[in-house]
Design brief:
Layout (H helix, E strand, L loop, with lengths): L6 H16 L7 H17 L5 H23 L2
Helix pairs in contact: 1-3
């Protein structure tokens, strides 16, 4: 099972998801919109519980996820 404790497995899973999303018409530019929607949802849902450290943790995770998926979108 791919988890944060299994970076290689997580990378494989995210690249597979990227390829699947490519077939659905997802483009690289969509990841910025998704990031905005995700962070808006986290901030408005969690309120003061969405601390700066939680923000940084989610930002780091989203960077990893989007980087892997975008790499798969770019692949021939």
């Amino acid at each position: 099972m791919a988890t944060l404790r299994d970076p290689a497995g997580l990378s494989l899973l995210l690249r597979k998801l990227g390829r699947m999303h490519s077939g659905l018409g997802v483009e690289e530019r969509h990841f910025d919109d998704l990031r905005g929607a995700l962070f808006w949802t986290l901030k408005t849902s969690l309120g003061t519980a969405f601390t700066p450290s939680l923000d940084r943790a989610w930002a780091s995770l989203y960077e990893i996820m989007s980087r892997e998926m975008i790499a798969a979108l770019r692949a021939p």
